[in-house]
Each structure stands twice: as structure tokens, then as C-alpha cells.
Amino acid sequence: MKYIVLSMAAAFSILLNPAFAQKQAMSGSMARLHANIQCAQCHNNIQPMQAPQDTTCIQCHGKSSSIQLPANVNEKNYHNSPHYGDTVSCLECHREHQPQQNLCKNCHVIK
């Protein structure tokens, strides 16, 4: 029994170690686009990890109104909102560890 408890304690200490956490791959909807990015680049080594601030997203992607969709994407660019401009948090729509949301669908019918 003593060895089981010690083994479990050792396993949990490894899982809680930030260095180990850095090596875990993203599993959500942004995983493909951020595959070569370490967790700390967005989460700033804050423990426990918290959602990144919009300023972190803007450092790489720019303000939402300046984001261009790839040429092969044939849909409206929701980043350039006539209602909100640059005031909506990136995390309002883009989430890694929770289901994605579409703020526009709160009022508009989107096909």
C-alpha cells in the first residue's frame, strides 16, 4: 500500500511539473495552426495556466480588424465586425480547450 501511494504521488508530481506540461500537444481546434508553439508562449508560464490575454494574440496576429482570411476560404471575414470593431476579446470566439463559439450567431443566421 505504501508503494502504491508513493507511486501515485510521484506520477502526480510529474504531471503537475510545468516542464512536463510544456511538452503536451494542443488537442483542440487551434492545434493544427499552433502546432509549433510552446504553451508558455501564450500562457506566459502562469501557473495554474490561465487563458491568454488578447494582447498575447495581437502580438502574433495583429488586431482583429487587420486579420485577412486565406484566399481559399470563401466566407465572410467575421474579424472585421461592423458592430464591435476591435473591442471583442479573441477568446469570445477562439478557444482551445473549450468548444468554439460564434458571437455573430447570437443575432444573425449564418449558413
Automatic annotation (TrEMBL):
GO terms for cellular component: cell envelope. Its main location: other. Its cofactor is heme c. InterPro entries: Multihaem_cyt_sf, Tetrahaem_cytochrome. SUPFAM superfamilies: Multiheme cytochromes. Gene3D superfamilies: Flavocytochrome C3, Chain A. One of its GO terms (molecular function) is metal ion binding. It holds the Pfam family Cytochrom_c3_2. It is found in: Cell envelope. Transmembrane segments: none annotated. Residues 35-108 form the Tetrahaem cytochrome domain. Keywords: Electron transport, Heme, Iron, Metal-binding, Transport. This is Cytochrome C.
